[in-house]
Amino acid sequence: MPDLDETDRHLLRLLQRDSTLSTQALAEKTGLSASPAWRRVKRLIDEGYIARQVAIVPPIKAGLHAIAYVQVSLLDHTEASIGKFDSFVRTEDQVIECATITGTSDFLLKIVAPDPEGLEHFIMRRLLALGIVRGTVTNFVLRQTKYTTAMPV
């Protein structure tokens, strides 16, 4: 982030903690007046430093009491298989994160469900039913020590 000065970084830190802060509140916390604060935030949005502003819903409040990380290995790495898997991941609401990884697996998924049986159902009846998965390794989350979406800026 070499193009950002300390005020831009401060604005990003504030907005990552609370995206509902008004322009006036942002201005007060950064020592700016409202117009320059608004212009800076608009520039951060226009330049892609702020991709979107969202509400973060705790899984438990949404009735999702089971979280698991699932390592997925595909049968092959053809364009068709990868495309089918990518499409599946994009359309499944229970998959809240997906990353291509190195090592013995191809992907790492973060999956939420109402309970452990819901996770099993998703893995057995949705994921494995794709017909392109060689294997999975599932790690259930017992307790989250830290969870944040904020980037260190």
Automatic annotation (TrEMBL):
Q: Which CDD domains has this protein been placed in?
A: HTH_ARSR (cd00090)
Q: Determine the domain of life of the protein's source.
A: Bacteria
Instruction: Please provide the record's keywords in A-Z order.
Output: DNA-binding, Transcription, Transcription regulation
Which SUPFAM superfamilies does its entry note? Answer: Dimeric alpha+beta barrel, Winged helix' DNA-binding domain
For this protein, the record's Pfam families field holds: AsnC_trans_reg (PF01037), HTH_24 (PF13412)
Domain (HTH asnC-type) spans: 4-65
InterPro entries under this entry?
ArsR-like_HTH (IPR011991), AsnC-type_HTH_dom (IPR000485), Dimeric_a/b-barrel (IPR011008), Tscrpt_reg_AsnC-like (IPR019888), Tscrpt_reg_AsnC/Lrp_C (IPR019887), Tscrpt_reg_HTH_AsnC-type_CS (IPR019885), WH-like_DNA-bd_sf (IPR036388), WH_DNA-bd_sf (IPR036390)
Its Gene Ontology cellular component terms are:
cytosol
BP terms from Gene Ontology: regulation of DNA-templated transcription; response to amino acid
Q: Does the keyword Transcription apply?
A: yes
Q: Any idea which GO molecular function terms this record carries?
A: sequence-specific DNA binding
Tell me the protein's name.
Lrp/AsnC family transcriptional regulator
